[in-house]
Structure formats: structure tokens, C-alpha cells
Amino acid sequence: MINKNSIIHQDAQVSSTAQIGPYVVIGPNVKIGANVTVHSHVNISGDTSIDDGCKIFPFASIGNDPQDLKYKGEAFVDNKKMADAQWSATIVDRK
């Protein structure tokens, strides 16, 4: 169900089983999977995919540029590779 007070771009792909709350804005190139719940006042933009069964809570902003003032428009890295790199960098030999 998509709330009548939400704005969904015509090029966004939203599963028929997704629950979209009021005042949600979903831009183009966004894919919302099955059984996803997006609560009120959420903004989703950019080249963003939300996997099946996820819940997004009020006032979240996903896929937008970060608020960090040091951000200069550089490309984001793959989250999986970033997580692996951070994990391997934090392993400490405690012997």
C-alpha cells in the first residue's frame, strides 16, 4: 500500500507488497523490494535498492549526499568491500 500523501517517481520500482507511509519521497532509480515498510517522512533517492523485508523508520534520508562538509562529490565505495576492509583493519593479535 502506498499512502496517498507520498510522492513516488514514475521511474522508481516499488514492490506491490511494500508499505509506504505518508510524506515519503522516492526518487528515480530507486528499487523497493517485497514486504518493505517505509514509515512516514522518509526520503530515498539516488541509485538505491532496499532489499526484501527491510524497515525504514521516520525521518531517514537514504541515498542522498552526506552532510559531512568534507564531502566533495566523490564516488561511494561498495559497502561490502568497505565492511571487509574495515573488519580486516581492526583485527588485532592479542597474544
List keywords for this structure.
95 residues; four-stranded parallel β-sheet; three-stranded parallel β-sheet; 1 helix; 13% helix; disordered C terminus
Largest sheet: 4 strands, parallel
Silhouette: globular
How many distinct domains? 1
Order of strands, widest sheet: 1-4-7-10
Radius of gyration: 16 Å
Overall mean pLDDT stands at 85
**CATH architecture label:** 3 Solenoid
The CATH class is identified as Mainly Beta
Can you give a write-up of this model?
With 95 residues, the protein is of the alpha/beta class. The chain has a single domain (7-90), classed as UDP N-Acetylglucosamine Acyltransferase, domain 1, CATH 2.160.10.10. 13% of the residues lie in helices and 23% in strands. It contains one helix and ten strands; from the N terminus they run ββββββββββα. Strands 1-4-7-10 form a four-stranded parallel beta sheet, with no helix packed on it. Strands 2-5-8 form a three-stranded parallel beta sheet, with no helix packed on it. Residues 87-95 have low confidence and may be disordered.
Q: How is this structure best summarized?
A:
The chain contains one helix and ten strands.
Fold topology:
Elements: E1 7-8, E2 13-14, E3 19-20, E4 25-26, E5 30-32, E6 37-38, E7 43-44, E8 48-50, E9 55-56, E10 61-62, H1 79-90
Parallel strand pairs: 1-4, 2-5, 3-6, 4-7, 5-8, 6-9, 7-10
